[in-house]
Amino acid sequence: MSKTHITVANLTMAYGNLIIQRDMDFTINRGDIFIVMGGSGCGKSTLMRHLIGLKQPAKGEIFYQNLSFWDASPKVRRQLMMKMGVSYQSGALFSSMTLAENIALPLSAFSSLTRSEIREIVSLKLALVGLAGFEGYYPAEISGGMQKRAGLARAMALDPDILFFDEPSSGLDPISSRLLDDLILHLRDNLGATIVVVTHELSSIFAIGNNSVFLDAESKTIIAKGDPKQLLAECDVPKVRRFLTRGDCGHAYEFQHHGQ
Amino acid sequence: MVNSDTAPTLNFRELAGHRLEIVLVGDWVADKQRPSADQVLAMLANETAVRELCFDASGLGLWDSLMLTFLTKIENGCKTMGISVDRGGLPAGIHGMLELADAVPELEGVRRQHPKSGFLEKAGLLGIAFWEETVAILAFIGEAALGFGRFVLGKANYRRVDLFLLVQECGANAFPIVSLISFLVGMILAFVGSAQLSKYGAQVYIADMVGLGMSREMGALMTGIIMTGRTGAAFAAQLGSMQVNDEIDALKTMGFSDIEFLVVPRMLALILMMPLLCVYADLMGMAGGGLVSLYLYDISILEYSQHILARLRFQDFAVGVGKSVVYGVLVALAGCMRGMQCGRSSQAVGMAATSAVVTGIVMIVCADAVMAMVVITLHW
């Protein structure tokens, strides 16, 4: 099986005439925890929408194991999308369904499992995200953090090859955020899944990421890529340093450079 | 779920010290006919000597969530039979996932039970719900009346620009649908009436019938029903979405009265616009009736208009307009009340909009019945 899982080639993202990011090139390897980072409004979530096939690129290609997503037939695209699990910022659970029904929905639609098998998988997925016994609850009856975890359980329902997380830590307390980071690491280590995380939470970025891109809203392109820990140690792009050091060392760094 | 080629099989190997080893071979994925955990548990129940269960997964290929549920089921069964389970022989991934699933045990009492309720309990619950609903409606009407009173006294806190936008939304923007429905209702009245009147050669009285019908009853009623479906539902959906997004909580914490800021402008917009829409609907209905008279019975527009002008009194219009004001208040109350009562989910917003329409129509029809009796009793 090839090591490269996702390849983004010369991708330009735009809303009408408004270009969000241009000429992006990067690869995501199988088993990577890939971080998409950058300041607010730089197009992180838009990039995720492109990667999960919800938005067509203005220019460029996205390949999944050398298969161009947008050149593929709708049927192949649908098959590719079924191998992706997406955990949305708010959980995006269907409010008219219980947690069990939310998780069972893709299983009953896209697999030939029996009802009892689906019930067992639902219980397992909820247990994996620490929500054992919450099958009969509606999303409105549980907290935001629990909704997020239930959303992740639904994203994992079909045992996806790639898991996408949109701002997984936002709105969570530090302990829940740490537990979610541990869960992401577990999923990568135990399932071998490729994980793409859109975030600007520094603690998460350094705790879980082994590869990343940094999007810049001003120049509308990628200004740094690589392991976030390595970027912190070696990257000399002032914006990236300011971001990765919460501005403190960045200022000092910039000041030193100006001084020189 | 993964697709693969190697069939999943399961063998047992007895080891020393009352240990039983389960040998897992092949690809354990969803599209394969897999051995069931029940078979394993039935076998273990017969083998009373077994005290420990372990695994040999050296021949195991692909696996997915079903492997995890299979093992969980076996572990749970072993627990009840007093057999210990050694996960050592399982691949690291399966081991890790099972540990993760065990990491947060189920809280006591968290699982939801659904006990069946009897007829009496159901009837009692319905009665309580009806009482609570009645109290909520009365409380909302009271709060809205107080808010309106503060508006009349010039003390209400609201944005004037919102009021103007609502007036536009409830008035001018509703013209197309009111025109269409009223015109058609006027035509229908004329068709239905003419079928009877023509038997006596009294077709010319179609004008009287359509004029009276539209001005006293149908103009106001149809406008009320249109506005319930169009504007009442929109009010409920708007306020419901604000509830979901915590916007109403934000208003309250800033010190605004939600009733004055949100409900009063909506009520006022409908109270102002409903009479105008009603008169407009009356005229459109009469025009519809005129068209039918002209084409079916050759009654000229001039003759039709003269009949209407001779028959209709100012009072007839006033009755219709008066009703429309009442309907406006009811539509606004139903829409705003259901919106403010909305839960915090997208499903609740849909239910609020539906409920606003149902409540609005029921209230309009009830109010119409009461007003019809009042009008007849007072000989208006």
| Morphology call of chain A | globular
The percent range for helix content of chain B is 55-70%
Structural domains of chain B: how many:
2
Strand content of chain A: 15-25%
- Under CATH, the homologous superfamily of the largest domain in chain A reads P-loop containing nucleotide triphosphate hydrolases
In terms of per-residue confidence, which ranges of chain A show pLDDT below 50 for 5 or more consecutive residues? 250-260
CATH class of the largest domain in chain A: Alpha Beta
- Largest sheet, strands/sense/barrel of chain A: 6 strands, mixed
Q: If you average the pLDDT of chain A, what whole number results?
A: 88
3D architecture notes:
The complex is a heterodimer of chains A (260) and B (380). With 260 residues, chain A is of the alpha/beta class. Chain A has helices spanning 44-51, 74-82, 99-110, 115-128, 144-155, 174-191, 202-208, 228-234, 238-244, 248-259, and strands spanning 4-15, 18-29, 33-38, 59-64, 67-68, 84-87, 162-166, 194-198, 211-216, 221-225. In chain A, helix 9 (238-244) runs antiparallel to helix 10 (248-259). Chain A starts with a strand and ends with a helix. The longest helix of chain B has 40 residues, at 258-297. A four-stranded mixed beta sheet of chain B has the order 1-2-3-4, covered by helices on one side. In chain B, strand 2 (19-28), helix 1 (37-46) and strand 3 form a beta-alpha-beta unit. Chain B contains twelve helices and four strands; from the N terminus they run E-E-H-E-H-E-H-H-H-H-H-H-H-H-H-H. The N and C termini of chain B lie far apart (74 Å). The chains are: A alpha/beta (260), B alpha/beta (380).
